[in-house]
Amino acid sequence: MSAFAVPTACILGWPVRHSRSPLIHRHWLGRYGIAGDYIPHAVPPEKIAGFLRAFPASGFVGGNVTVPHKEIAFASVDRTDAVAEALGAVNTIFFEDGKLVGANTDAPGFLANLDQSASDFGGRGGPAIVLGAGGGARAVIWSLRERGFAPIHVVNRTRARAEALAERFGAAVRAAGWEDLPALLPSASILVNTTSLGMEGEPPLEIDLEPAPDELLVTDIVYVPLVTPLLAKARQRGLATVDGLGMLLHQAAPGFERWFGTRPEVTEELRQLVLADMESR
Ligand code: ATR
Question: Whole-structure pTM over 0.90, yes or no?
Fold first, then answer.
């Protein structure tokens, strides 16, 4: 007997109040007329490993895992998908043949967003610049490498972290420092911000885009605010931009399909719903 009246998924994080995942999944449940629910569930770091061990008895059909639990989730599930394996992080859990499986949909979500929002993304290739070397950068680097971007320059304040990523992802990935940007920009095909700079409450990301080629595509995985200072500057410079909200929406879809059996669509209506929620907070 499940603890829930209807199939229920959760988002596990600490804190988790800020998460917009319940809004997204409940929208889809309503839209597809599915009897189900999706709830935030705050679990402190010292309890997450035990919580995941006991997850099969929790009654949840699965869920998402967010900061700071993605690496512990990777180590706690019975098996992982190929992307999670490559990233060492899990953001989606579900059951298969009685086993708890951990997947990573951040990278596919990043790609789906660019495929939907930048028509030439698929065939673009060329040199990429990734700003930052945290968990977000991992997902982005894996994605860009998957689509044949090379070389991928990882620019980070703490160079050792960029070097660790270059080691993890192999020859296509090269570590660089912020001082290298003016030399890297003129030949770049895509520029991705994965740092927290430009996020609401954080300092802005200040880089000079003048040396960038007119064809540069600029995207940010930060989506609060929707138009980050980096994206605003890129638009002023006449460059193509893609905001980060689509990544959040697209990363949610594979989990929903696993738990509730329907592949949901990322629509303008959903985007507007999340935007309205962002504006109301
Ligand atoms: P996530 O896992 O969400 O990507 P993270 O691991 O905290 O987050 O990484 C945040 C990224 O933003 C890092 O690349 C960090 O640089 P360091 O590795 O040097 O810490 C970068 N970052 C945060 N604040 C910064 C700042 N003021 N200047 C430059 N980079 C900054």
Answer: yes
